[in-house]
Amino acid sequence: MFNVRPRKPAQPLRDATAQPLRLGAAVRLRGRGVTSVVIGNSPDIDRVRVRWDGTDEVTHCLRASLEQAR
Fold first, then answer.
1. Is 57 within the bounds of a domain?
2. What is the pLDDT of residues 2-36, one digit of tens each?
3. Residue 15 placed within a domain
4. Is the pLDDT score of 67 beyond 80?
5. What pLDDT, on a 0 to 100 scale, did the predictor assign at position 19?
6. Does 2 fall in a domain?
7. In angstroms, rounded to a whole number, what is the distance separating the alpha carbons of residues 11 and 33?
């Protein structure tokens, strides 16, 4: 006989769209001090367009790699 325990449900992976990043939100890359501002959505659902402070460069970044700056 085997001792079978019911499986615990797996924790869902944190979805990149779980925390909506609103237009104009100040964000930064996780683990870095570089900040930017969300200026729009990207054609890819898991990315947003951001304008980086200091350089004014516009890039498409993964939502999951950004966190809101406080």
1. yes
2. 677 776 665 544 544 445 788 999 999 888 888 99
3. no
4. yes
5. 58
6. no
7. 29
The answer for 53, left when phi > 0, alpha when psi is -120 to 50, beta otherwise, is: beta
Amino acid identity at 61:
C
29 backbone dihedrals φ, ψ, rounded to 5°: -70, 140
Q: Which residue has the tokens 């939502």?
A: 63
What total of structural domains would you count in the chain?
A: 1
Task: State the amino acid at position 64 in one-letter form.
Answer: A
Classify residue 47: in a domain, yes or no.
yes
Domain residue limits at 31:
26-68
Three-state SS annotation for 12-25? CCCCCCCCCCCCCC
pTM: 0.67
54 secondary structure, DSSP code: T
